[in-house]
Amino acid sequence: MKINRNPTREVAIGNIKIGNNHPIIVQSMCATRTQDIDATIAQTNALHERRAGVVRIAVDNKKDAAALIEIRNATDATLSVDLQENYRMAALVAPYVDKIRYNPGHLFHHEKRKSWQDKVAYLADLAGTHDCAMRVGVNAGSVDPAKLQDFDPRDSVSPMLGSALEHCEYLDSIGFSRYCVSLKDSDPQKVISANIRFAEARPDVPLHLGVTEAGMPPMGVIKTRIAFEQLISRGIGDTVRVSLTLPNTIKADEVDAGHEIIDDIYAGRVRSVVAFDPDKLNIISCPSCSRVENEAFIDLAQDVKEMTQYAEQYNITIAVMGCRVNGPGETDDADLGLWCGPKQVNLKRQGEKLGAFGYDVILDKLKVELDELIAAET
Fold this sequence. Notes:
Helix content: 25-40%
Structural class: alpha/beta
Number of helices: 12
Radius of gyration: 20 Å
Number of strands: 15
CATH class of the largest domain: Alpha Beta
Strand content: 15-25%
CATH topology of the largest domain: TIM Barrel
CATH superfamily of the largest domain: Dihydropteroate synthase-like
């Protein structure tokens, strides 16, 4: 298939270049705990060997930062640091990575009196000093709270778009152009809409594509394929990630899935006709990553999928989230939401918290609430 790529500018990430008609890069993110240095080195190298062009590692505190320095010395992978809620960690790791990823919606957790502009300028200065690219990573589950106030609550795409465009404009104004953008949602149709609108407004900015919390295979791959086929075929997208809920031992499978989707699109083997039915049960689960506080989350997501098979004909959304970063926001928008802590799982019903329950009883609690929702529909 002949694809006319968007004329985005070139951005260097280490030795890799994206945009400006360079090949689309498949990325991934380590699911191991960053402080488990040996495991993270092993997974970084496994992802790299499976052709992950960029490997992202989360850093949330000084111990994570110290671990990342050791990881950097043990891998040839191109590394991106995911700044969680503490943007100042960038100062510790910028000399050792190739890209800094920040989420505009997470800039408010620390130093609340300081403006987001000052924080972004701080990050851009570090990136420039240490030869790093940046990604402005906007997620539907954690949008800048100020942006949410500007739009109808039923419109989740416009706040993401507004936040991304605002940050691009500011980075341009301070002379930093070595950045890309991502706009992610768990709904592939919203991912398509957000990225088409962004590409129309800023065709010069490289885009990283992904359906966040896509879930478990095969549905997680199908959701992602739907978005990628519609976007890449329009020339939109310079890097991609297939975000799947997978055990650590097979985490690199999501890299293979990304390459397969891209290869199929260019070969004309598109499959969007098998789009998931939005009027049926929709299970959202976040990709296994180093933010997960209990690996039992992965088994729980699979158990939820199996337990809820009897409800697949009902228009109900269940979100199973692995950490505090995107968990609260994503579960607010679901009919039933679980976000997992180290020892307990927080259960919500249509945004209202019902309590925190042990991993051994949460499935039974979920079934009670699911049955009540089904009864209300019938």
